[in-house]
Here is the input.
Amino acid sequence: MSIITEKRIAKNYFRFMRNWDNETKKDMIIKLTKSIEEKPIEKFDFSSCFGAWEDERSADEIIKEIRSDRVNKAEIEEF
Here is the structure.
């Protein structure tokens, strides 16, 4: 969005808000100020998505659970 368009939008908002009472204006100022305060950026470690499977169950127990959770439908759904 261009600077001219942004200034025009801000001008229209101000025209709308100028008749508000002072308490409402102060509340809006506080909310706008909080919205532009810099917040620390949390770094996401992408490598945390990788790694070995950790589980206390044996391979046979995991396979048994996967097979028991399968759902086989004899019916074919129509579109």
About this structure: The mean pLDDT is 85. The helical segments are 3-17, 22-36, 59-69.
